[in-house]
Amino acid sequence: ALATAGAGDVLAGIITAFAVSMPPVDAAITGAHVHGLAAEAWRDAHDGADRGLLAGQLASFLPRVIARLSR
Question: What is the pLDDT of residues 29-51, one digit of tens each?
């Protein structure tokens, strides 16, 4: 599902946002993890779909994924 136009841009944005408050390597690891969790959340919301994800949809799942990790 992540082999779609713009998914890498979303990942780069996530990593950049985390790099403001943590070391770059930690930002990369955390960003990759959150990126994957957002894709899994999208998949779960779409009955297990493994294709059709758009980058904007991926980004829309980030707030709830980050909120879930913050608990």
Answer: 999 999 999 999 999 999 998 88
Look up the pTM and report it: 0.90
List of residues 6+ apart from 35 with CB closer than 8 A: 2, 7, 10, 11, 14, 58
Instruction: Return the pLDDT at 31.
Output: 97
The string of DSSP letters for 4-47 reads STTHHHHHHHHHHHHHTTS-HHHHHHHHHHHHHHHHHHHHHHTT
Q: Which of 17, 38, 37, 39 is nearest to 28 (CA)?
A: 17
